[in-house]
Amino acid sequence: MADAQEQNTRRGPGRPRQAHVTRAVLDAVVALVAESGMNALTMDAVAARAGVSKPAMYRRWPTKQDLVIAAAESRIGPLTVPDLGDFRAELRALLLSRMESYRRPGVSRLLAGVIGAAAEAGAEPGAYRDYTLRVMSETRHLLERGVSRGDVRPDVDAETAATLVAASLAFRLVGEQRLPDEALVESVVDLIGRAVGSRP
Amino acid sequence: MADAQEQNTRRGPGRPRQAHVTRAVLDAVVALVAESGMNALTMDAVAARAGVSKPAMYRRWPTKQDLVIAAAESRIGPLTVPDLGDFRAELRALLLSRMESYRRPGVSRLLAGVIGAAAEAGAEPGAYRDYTLRVMSETRHLLERGVSRGDVRPDVDAETAATLVAASLAFRLVGEQRLPDEALVESVVDLIGRAVGSRP
Q1: Of B72, B116, B131, B137, which sits most exposed with the smallest number of CB within 10 A?
Q2: Cα nearest neighbour of A36 on chain B
Q3: pTM of the predicted model, to two decimals?
């Protein structure tokens, strides 16, 4: 499964072999969760599918939670939206990129699995929260750029606005169990644009 | 654990014994998930803790998914906001009620468990989605009432707005792993009020 984002965000310090192992392992995690759910995800099953040794996996991802968060981040990770001169245009670009990621096979089940894994006994507290904050960081940046530019209200509560933006597509996918589509993106851009825009 | 909502939404056809069993079982589910996570939740553990027979449980809740959705619904279920003459006031009342539910011990882990359970192999497709839609239904109603009253734009996309409202507190709790508080509620009321309001 092609995944340029994964290669960019996860490659090690210039070792092609390491990047290949990472890619194989995270693809195997996504495929196994998509096919059979989290309960079927074992270190043995991932190692077999990826064709890597278990020690190599444990060195990188000591727990199942580490593994599923890394897999989720290989599909839905940090992104950067260039300055388009307009907050709504930038928000649309961000949400369309997320929408495409969320619509990929297995991603819905993977995200549900990450959420469930974070609530299991022994899961590292904060690992999933930190991932969420990485995913949300670009929205904060777009809001700040909009305030500087003047098309976002200077008194906007950027923290809550970023929560609404991140929550919209994620909740549609995981809570309502429907794939986010372009109509949803346009409607979120309209609602958030009205909520935070400096023009009435 | 006192829970008036649970009694209202879950009682059977006037049999006090049945209501008592329901209450004991769902309280046991919440307590077990809060203490040890979903993997520790077995029919045996729930039956022992609630002091009920397993056949009585299986008749009502054939699967673990049925059990955790019923437990979640006993804590976060349908609610009704009376006509307060003002959309923002009604939205605030709805969100404050949800906020209180979300802040109760064990609810965060329970919701994460419900999401995880819905993605497991063999989980009934649609059961969690139907629960989500029940939780969201009052927001739709408030938006429609606001359109009739005139303080919500008649061209509002009520479906997306309801997603944003439901998503805000749920994502703060489950995604960002922070308890929703009154400051969040006020900020969501402000943002959604601007997004859907008929007054600029």
Answers
A1: B137
A2: B121
A3: 0.89
